[in-house]
Amino acid sequence: MAGQQQRQVPAQQIQQGEIQKPKSSAVLVKEIISRDTCKKKFAEILGQKAPQFLASLTNVVSGSAQLKRAEPNSIVSAAFVAATYDLPIDSNLGFAAIVPYNNSKKNPQTGKWEDHMEAQFQMMYKGFIQLAIRSGYYEKMNYAVVYEDELVSYNPITGEIVFVTDFSQCTQRDEGQTDKVVGYYAWFRLKTGYSHELYMSTKAVENHAKKYSQAYRSDLNKGKKNSKWTTDFEAMALKTVIKLLLSKWGILSVDMQRAIQDDQKTFDEEGEASYGDNQPDAIEAENVFELPGPGDEQAKDEQPENGESSDGTGTDAADAGEYVSPEEIDDFMESMGLEELPFK
């Protein structure tokens, strides 16, 4: 496997005492993105912002002990997907992130399961908000952490939420009493006047994380802090409530649909995408409020079953970039010569 191949040392080097330490993923990623072919591919997507984006990629990998052990091709692939959305990959900014994930794979030679550190592309809550703003459909939206003294009632059947009217009497937020956080809230209003809100209690968010994140379940069982759910629960909770609100009730641009599909996927050296962390978030309702455009009925019959747009029908301000298919990612990885790297 990749990790084993990277540690193999020719017998001649052993005899000559020239054993060299295997290159870390940070070094290999830096070598990849320094190639003209790689720079050209990112420049085609990001234009003049490409050098800054690639520099940030180097900083992200160098600053993460886990990413330094992840397969370099998965790191570059995740970065390439992030670039198609024109979102920064510094997780501290809250737009998008390249997240290390310990994936178990069966070694065909030994028949044993082995852990392989890979990188997955992950949308963050500000990223979903950014795509919503770019679409031009939304007049206003907001999100918030909800404290105990701010919530009057919540009806999980009707979805009705009642907050206090006089927030000057609420002190828990200002005092930073994080143990009093009871839930997470998001809300939007479309330019058509339609609005919707979604509240999830802290317990509901925890149950969601346990159900859909294998990494989080592993952290809870082993008492570790490796998943984003464990290290930054608030950011992941806000992402969850915003993502579910927009995907269930919002108008989805093509970019937003792609982001929901690509979120938490791992891309391998063949450009194949898979969910590295268990399974995707469930989308329980269709987007019944999407505004129809000219020729939509005809376009609906012509679209592929997976919902990916095959032409320019219904595009808007958020769809300036073309859809990047797994085949295109495959071509991108091949053009950088990744198959020749020692970690293959």
Structure notes:
With 344 residues, the chain is an alpha+beta fold. The protein is built from 14 helices and nine strands. It has helices at 2-7, 11-15, 25-33, 36-46, 50-62, 72-84, 125-135, 202-212, 214-222, 228-231, 233-249, 254-262, 296-302, 326-335, and strands at residues 96-106, 113-123, 138-147, 151-154, 161-163, 181-190, 195-201, 265-267, 273-275. The strands form three sheets. Strands 1-2-8-9 form a four-stranded antiparallel beta sheet. Strand 4 (151-154) and strand 5 form a beta hairpin. Helix 3 crosses helix 6 (72-84) and helix 7 (125-135) runs parallel beside helix 11 (233-249). The longest helix is centred in the C-terminal third of the chain and has 17 residues, at 233-249.
Mean pLDDT: 77
String of helices and strands? HHHHHHEEHEEEEEHHHHHEEHH
Count every beta strand, where a strand is a DSSP E run of 2 or more residues.
9
Fraction of helical residues: 25-40%
Terminus-to-terminus distance: 8 Å
Strand order of the largest sheet: 1-2-8-9
Separate helix tally: 14
Percent of residues in beta strands = 15-25%
Please identify the structural class as seen in this structure.
alpha+beta
Inertia-based shape: globular
Largest sheet: 4 strands, antiparallel
Radius of gyration: 22 Å
Low-pLDDT stretches? 1-7, 282-323, 339-344
Q: Could you give a short description of this structure?
A:
With 344 residues, this protein is α+β, with helices and mostly antiparallel strands.
